[in-house]
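Internal tracking record. Fields below are filled automatically when a chain is submitted to the structure queue. Please do not edit lines marked as system-generated. If the sequence contains nonstandard residues, flag them in the REMARKS field before resubmitting.
Queue: standard
Priority: normal
Entity type: single polypeptide chain
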Amino acid sequence: MTIAKRLLDIFGALGLLLLLGPFIILTALVIGVLDGRPVFYISERMKTPNRGFQLVKFRTMKPVESDSGVSGGDKLERITRTGPFLRRSRLDELPQLWNVIRGDMSFIGPRPPLRQYVERFPEIYQKVLQSRPGVSGLASIYFHSHEEHLLARSRSREETDQIYCRACIPRKARLDLIYQANRNLCMDVSLMFKTIFKRLR
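SYSTEM-GENERATED OUTPUT FOLLOWS
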């Protein structure tokens, strides 16, 4: 990561926290009132092929004792009352500004994967995680909606896992490596604006 990219992350995240701070607090209060505690969902994600970190999001699903893998149609019954809106608007990801400030993530990069997929596909993530994980990126902008559509059809944890491994991981990795080969500060700023416009739309 270049110094310019890191500075963009720090000042951008601090600026957004100052600007959106009251809204983030209000969102947390609404979740607490309508869905109860915990307000935040904390889960391990991978920063490098060997180093994990604790990713923070607003909780959108009812907690269970054992949970693994990505979210698909098999987990629809667990979505909270505020969950559909938070997920559709991607507001559940606002707490990740803290991860950006800490240096766990950048604004732009590959979405941070779960450890289980990094361990199962080391040849893919050895390349993908040469870029610091991001809140958004090429795969988030151009593949996320299609990924949700694919996974929504699954009716079991096993089916969700099969679809994700077969149809999602290779395609997302291809986009992440395109970003990696062409990344620069202008590209990051462009993708940040595309992310904002997509959310507003």
